[in-house]
Amino acid sequence: MTKHHNRESQLFKSNKNPQFRSKFSEDIFYTKYAHKGAETMHELAATLVEDVCQDRMRKSEKDELISHIADLRFLPGGRYLYYAGRDKKFFNNCYLLRCEEDTREDWANLSWKAESCLMTGGGIGSDYSVYRAEGTCLGGTGGIASGPIPKIQMINEIGRRVMQGGSRRSAIYASLNWKHADIYKFLSSKNWKDMPVGTTGQTLFDIKQDDFNFPAPMDMTNISVNYDTEWLLNYWKTGDVGDVFRTNVLQALSTAEPGFSFNFFEQENETLRNACTEVTSEDDSDVCNLGSLNFARIDGVDQLRNVVELATKFLICGTLRAQLPYSKIYDIREKNRRLGLGLMGLHEWLIQRGSRYETTEEMHRWLKVFKSESDRVSDSFSDELSISRPIAKRAIAPTGTIGIIAGTSTGVEPIFAVSYKRRYLKNRRWHYQYVVDSAAQEMIDLYGADPDSIESAMDLATDYERRLSFQANIQEYVDMSISSTINLPSWGTKQNNEDLVEPFAQTLAKYAHRLRGFTCFPDGSRGGQPLTVVPYKEAVAKLGEEFQENIQAHDICEITGTGGVCGV
Question: How far apart are the first and last CA of the chain?
């Protein structure tokens, strides 16, 4: 075991959960997951493994698996952690819902499916390309079609009213094909800066900077454009990305959305995505089943094989144990049995080895083991249990919360920043907490590294091709998709403006056939931005401090001049 693995950060030491590297990690654990009988990570792991695996794994295997989870080498998705030891067993993080036909019945059915899934705590994703464009004549009634965007907004409102599992904001995804007649309306549907609010002189963007919960079109929904083989072949033939793609890039660089969903050749019909876009499918009511390996806590290739084997078996057991909100999902799960085994801690793993943010020969060796072992075990263990084999095994989630618990870099992302201020809403007040990235702090403690010399997402913001290349290299080992967001400077700055649109579009198009998706986040593009970079010395001086500010609770009736029941 390396020196790195044996050493705790100087900034934090927990007696109850010594594996946590920061108070931030421990706070998240106790806020979201710990409960009576599962008050330490080891207790939660033991409860979860018994809940999920039961007698389908040997006791020795379950004991090893408990150790891997407790020591943060493998962490199942957040819904697994949340429901461990609870009466309900809604272990799945998300559901994929197809709009199957453009009928009144399908519109109503989609709403019912969305509400049913959101109530379990799982996010939802849908592709709306089957719906006719706004203004199309309806033969059956003689009326006029409203188009897909109002339906997306209806699902968004369901998400607003349904707190997922009673515990968190709803996560929703919506996509539209690049050839759809309403695509330009879709591309600009979240331009909040262009949407005035009443006679206040403010836009929706201005108000959401103060009050992130203030309603805005599709504010609960991540949106993406689907690009198919036709688009790719046309780009390869002409070298022209096309106006839709170019406009998509402009919108993404300035407002963060829409993202890009790439579905080419044999994967062309996999237009359904979960809320974070890493799970793909063509089947209505397919389901996510997520868990992530923490490369930074795994000691060598032999241990990696062991962790992959046990994590894969755990997720297969999850396909037999998890409760689902309605009957069709059980049928689709049995048919596809998708596993979403993913990764986190890749950047920390590189930092441990003194490498910059790029795939190395050693990383490729580890990734080959990740791919081959998950393929082998998923087939052999399914055969042992006499169940259908999974049609897909690997998807890399953003691992936001579980990455914090593990105290490592999330997903395939570089660390956001060496030090930052985290903002979150609690009891209608903005709370702030200073954070020093644990991986960065380890390098500072162990090797005396200069905080300003450690690469971060913000440092790589202007080197976007290196980010794209890294994601494309990892995608070779993933049979679904990767959720990854490239951080960019604010729109209108020297590094991010209209002059960047064409070169960025060409670079992204060059890598498109090696990717399954892409998103970016310009600094300051969304109200309620949770993380803000601060100087390292400031964060260290205020580490552990938490403070709060009142938020402006806007009354929608006052703003619009309408009556009725008010108070947002």
Answer: 53
Quote the pLDDT of residue 429.
67
Structural domain span for residue 104: 94-273
Tally helices (H) and strands (E) across the chain. 21, 17
* Burial class of residue 146, CB neighbours in 10 A (0-12, 13-18, 19+): middle
Written as six digits, the tokens of 484 are 């990854």
Q: Are 308 and 374 in contact (CB under 8 A)?
A: yes
Same domain, 133 and 220: yes
- Write the DSSP symbol of residue 239: S
Burial class (CB in 10 A: 0-12, 13-18, 19+), 348: buried
Within a domain: 564 = no
Distances in whole angstroms, Cα of residue 425 to Cα of each of 3, 218, 548: 38, 19, 9
Q: State the alpha helices, DSSP H only, in 33-103.
A: 41-53, 59-70, 78-83
10, pLDDT greater than 90:
no
Cα–Cα dist 95/114, whole Å: 9
Last residue of a domain, one of 273, 302, 328: 273
Q: What confidence score (pLDDT) does residue 550 get?
A: 56
- 351: exposed, middle or buried (C-beta count within 10 Å: 0-12, 13-18, 19+)? buried
Per-residue pLDDT tens over the stretch 372-383: 999 999 999 999
For residue 567, the model assigns a pLDDT of 27
Claim to verify: residue 417 and residue 296 sit in the same structural domain: yes
- Please tell me whether residue 158 adopts helix, strand or coil conformation: helix
Domain endpoint, select from 273, 301, 319 = 273
Residue 376 lies in a domain: yes
Stated pTM of the model? 0.90
Structure confidence at residue 21 as a pLDDT band (50, 70, 90): confident
Q: Please, which pLDDT band fits residue 530 given cuts at 50, 70 and 90?
A: confident
pLDDT value of position 568: 25
Cβ pair 549, 430 in contact under 8 A = yes
Q: Are residues 246 and 305 in the same domain?
A: no
Answer whether residue 530 is part of any domain: no
- Measured in degrees and rounded to the nearest 5, phi and psi for residue 554 equal -75, 135
- In angstroms, the Cα distances linking 158 to 161, 330, 395 are 5, 23, 27
In the three-class reduction of DSSP (H, G, I as helix; E, B as strand; rest coil), residue 15 is classed as: coil
Q: What's the CA gap between 104 and 140, in Å, rounded?
A: 11
Burial of 135 per CB tally in 10 Å (0-12, 13-18, 19+): exposed
Question: If residue 100 lies in a helix (H) or strand (E), which one and from where to where?
Answer: none
262-296 per-position pLDDT tens digit: 999 999 999 999 999 999 999 999 999 999 999 99
